[in-house]
Amino acid sequence: HFLSCLKGLDLIAREVERRFGYRRVLITPGDADVEDRVKMQMGRLAAEYLLEILKPGMVIAVTGGTTMAVIPECMKQMIPPLDVMVVPGRGALGERVEIQADTIAAKLAQKLGGDYRLLHIPENLGTEAMETITGVPSIKELLKTIKNADVLLHGIGRAEEMAGRRGFKERDIKLLKERGAVSETLGFYFNKKGQIVHSTTSIGLNLEDLKRIRHKITVAGGSSKGEAILSFSRNKYHDVLITDEGAVKTIMKII
Ligand code: BG6
């Protein structure tokens, strides 16, 4: 039964690749909403995939989130150390410190034996404060590094959940709903069609930068995230998807 299930998932993976133009889709059996070990399996697949593509000198940008947080846990300690650098994709987006991009970047760098840089910058600063900060030479340099990342490892959230987690005001949550926001990544919110409908003021990667990044690895699963993953899959900023059976079942029901 296990093998036939894997075979079935393999067929679905090819179908998702074809429909949405992913270079590669990897699906792990199970549903991350139901069992924590499924999130770990996605983390393991992401860690393995990352090791396959890493080359000396590469820069890896990561986002925050509970899914991203398992990747350093699943990564083996690299000996000898790899000559890579890990950076957060965007400045803080209002998450708990354990699952902030900065924390995940530092942990992943430790496992890889590489270097890391952090962006200690709060989100939603005024334009003036933002301009002052981005004018600081060391931050300018770091932003350049982030924007030229070779790899982006990122999660996808449900728009409503992410707005709640980030302490959006009632009125902003309402606005997001009115605009039909379904998914979120890096502080960008997308509607069903994959069009951007809102973005959080923060520094770091913007959507245009994503086009330049060679390896974009999206890691997201759980049946409740199916609609969000589908929405994100309809934009043009994706490349490789690592997900689970729960999410693809939801997607298949919708399409
Ligand atoms: C956030 C990332 O921290 O986590 C987002 O900035 C992502 O890109 C979100 O959408 C996903 O969180 P989780 O906990 O569902 O993996």
Description:
- With 255 residues, the protein is α/β, with parallel strands linked by helices.
- It has helices at residues 2-20, 36-53, 66-74, 101-112, 127-135, 137-147, 159-165, 170-178, 207-212, 226-233, 245-254, and strands at 24-28, 59-62, 85-88, 115-116, 151-154, 157-158, 181-185, 188-191, 196-199, 215-219, 240-244.
- Strand 3 (85-88), helix 4 (101-112) and strand 4 (115-116) form a beta-alpha-beta unit.
- The protein is globular.
- The model has no long low-confidence stretch (mean pLDDT 94).
- It binds 6-O-phosphono-beta-D-glucopyranose.
Strand runs, count: 11
Q: State the end-to-end distance.
A: 26 Å
Q: How would you spell out the order of helices and strands?
A: HEHEHEHEHHEEHHEEEHEHEH
Bound molecules: 6-O-phosphono-beta-D-glucopyranose
Q: Average pLDDT, to the nearest integer? A: 94
How many helix segments?
11
Strand percentage: 15-25%
Largest sheet: 7 strands, parallel
List the helices and strands and how they pair.
Elements lengths: L1 H19 L3 E5 L7 H18 L5 E4 L3 H9 L10 E4 L12 H12 L2 E2 L10 H9 L1 H11 L3 E4 L2 E2 H7 L4 H9 L2 E5 L2 E4 L4 E4 L7 H6 L2 E5 L6 H8 L6 E5 H10 L1
Parallel strand pairs: 1-11, 2-3, 2-5, 3-4, 5-10, 10-11
Antiparallel strand pairs: 6-7, 7-8, 8-9
Helix pairs in contact: 2-3, 3-4, 7-8, 10-11
6-O-phosphono-beta-D-glucopyranose binds next to helix 3 and strand 7.
Distinctive features:
11 helices; 255 residues; alpha/beta; binds 6-O-phosphono-beta-D-glucopyranose; 7-stranded parallel sheet; single chain
